[in-house]
Specification:
Blueprint (H helix, E strand, L loop, with lengths): L3 E5 L8 H14 L5 E5 L5 H6 L2 H5 L17 H10 L6 H4 L17 E4 L14 H8 L2 H6 L8 E5 L6 H9 L2 E6 L3 H21 L11 E6 L8 H18 L8 E2 L8 H9 L3 H4 L4 H18 L8
Parallel strand pairs: 1-4, 1-5, 2-3, 2-4, 5-6, 6-7
Helix pairs in contact: 1-13, 9-10
Length: about 325
């Protein structure tokens, strides 16, 4: 069975995109025995930092530690650099970090969870790419790089940068479906609506979605940083549902697009996970965040393995 390639993307930052990728990916692999590859396209390297300790990341990141040579050919940066320059330096088998995260003895903690890390050098690529180079070289490069892996994994989850520039568009082109993380507040909900419209416009104008799609592949929304205190959050969620139904009617999103439940509640343990370089189900399996992500991942599996493959009623 070919992997489901799913990109997590929103042009608004701080909406839980990288946290979703890391923690849904970890739950898929650790709790549900799915083979998962996480692909980090964000120059901020949040997914990479969340699963690799500083010394492990220093081994691939430029000028962070003089003891480690810089090896750009083992990050997603090199995929795009090769397509831009016509070189062939990227080494997929060397690039993939298997069984992340690791304990202090380098033992694999989640054997079915792999990572293709990012590099801060990704931010240098955007300004030098001409439109025709993007269309014929950059846009399909990630999909081509991932194609040999499609039978190796059940899921490939892509952490896109918080924009819709060239690298993000390459992530969209590589994906079968898109998930849009958002927060339950006015600005985030407004940005969600604008983002969906922008993706649809980009799709129509530049064919950033592969031709086998009918319409926009935004297939799910996640809600993060939810707080049960007061009614503001619930009011925002109700508005999100209203906007989503309108977008479905307008064929801006996938006809079976849903808001995945439950919302991820605000939890201090989630803030600790990045500095611990572990997903929350390993860091604090009894925490609110671990419970929410466990339930969210079950809903994620049902949606992407069952609902989207069922006929519309």
């Amino acid at each position: 069975m070919s992997a489901k390639v799913i990109a997590f993307i929103n042009f608004k930052g701080g909406v839980g995109k990288s946290s979703n990728v890391v923690n849904i990916g970890a739950c898929l692999a650790h709790l549900h025995r799915r083979r998962v590859l996480l692909v980090d396209l964000d120059a901020q390297c949040s997914t990479t930092y969340s699963l690799l300790r500083p010394t492990e990341f220093n081994a691939i990141d430029k000028k962070r530690d003089p003891e480690f040579p810089y090896r750009p050919h083992v990050t997603t940066y090199q995929i795009f650099h090769d397509s831009f320059r016509g070189t062939k330096s990227f080494e997929m088998e060397s690039a993939i970090k298997r069984g992340v995260p690791y304990d202090k003895s380098r033992a694999e903690l989640i054997p079915l969870l792999d990572l293709l890390p990012a590099s801060i050098d990704l931010m240098r690529l955007e300004g030098g790419i001409a439109p025709h180079v993007f269309q014929y070289n950059i846009k399909p490069s990630l999909r081509k790089a991932l194609e040999p892996l499609l039978n190796r994994y059940d899921y490939i989850l892509i952490d896109c940068p918080p924009n819709i520039y060239y690298i993000a568009q390459a992530g969209i082109y590589a994906a079968d479906y898109l998930v849009v993380p958002t927060n339950p507040d006015y600005l985030s909900i407004s940005a969600f609506n604008a983002f969906c419209e922008l993706v649809k416009d980009k799709t129509d104008a530049t064919t950033i979605v592969r031709s086998r799609f009918q319409g926009c592949p935004i297939a799910a929304v996640t809600i993060n940083r939810y707080n049960r205190i007061g009614i503001a959050f619930d009011t925002a969620i109700s508005e999100l549902y209203t906007k989503l139904y309108d977008l479905i009617d307008q064929q801006v999103v996938h006809p079976q697009c849903i808001v995945l439940d439950p919302p991820i509640r605000t939890d201090v343990r989630m803030n600790e996970t990045v500095s611990e370089h572990k997903p929350v189900i390993l860091h604090r399996p009894d925490s609110i965040g671990a419970v929410d992500y466990s339930m969210l991942t079950s809903a994620f599996i049902k949606h992407f393995e069952v609902t989207l493959h069922s006929p519309l009623l």
